[in-house]
Amino acid sequence: MNTHMPRCIAACLLTAALASQAEATELVYTPVNPAFGGNPLNGTWLLNNAQSQNDYDDPDLKDRTAYAGTSALERFSNQLESRMLSQLLDNISNGSTGSMSTDAFLIDVIDDSGALSIRVTDRATGEVSLIEVSGLNP
Question: Which residues belong to the signal peptide in this entry (predicted)?
């Protein structure tokens, strides 16, 4: 008599018993993309993943960045001019007037008893812009 037969029957019965206890649950779809209702924290990961797979090179990008680049000296000069102009305009509250000269412009600030006049002269063309503000309290 074969001794493997009871083991085979026992294995089949055990498999049938376990299979009958298996239950299924309802499938619920949750989107990944935050634009479609997914978790907002997935946005950065999705964008970085898409950019890492993008092998398209914009041919115009090199042309646009070549003209937009500024040197450290140009950035420093622009910041210094901005700071000096800001200081000049801040001094108006103390009753002080003044002027400023840059490579491109001549700026004259005049406070006449609450009427502020700013004259900007373009050095290249000689064009003059006049800005007048009245009703300031000194």
Answer: 1-24
Question: Which range of residues forms the domain containing residue 129?
Answer: 97-133
3-class SS letters over 46-112: HHHHHHHHCCCCCCCHHHHHHHHCCCHHHHHHHHHHHHHHHHHHHHHHHCCCEEEECCCEEEEEEEE
> What pLDDT is attached to residue 99?
85
In a domain, 17, yes or no: no
Could you tell me if residue 111 is inside a domain? Answer: yes
Query: What pLDDT score does 53 carry?
Result: 92
How many structural domains compose the chain? 1
d(CA 114, CA 95): 9
Is 106 a member of any domain?
yes
Please give the span between the terminal C-alpha atoms of the chain, in angstroms, as a whole number. 117
Q: Is residue 44 part of a domain?
A: no
Structure tokens at 69: 């680049």
pLDDT at 131: 85
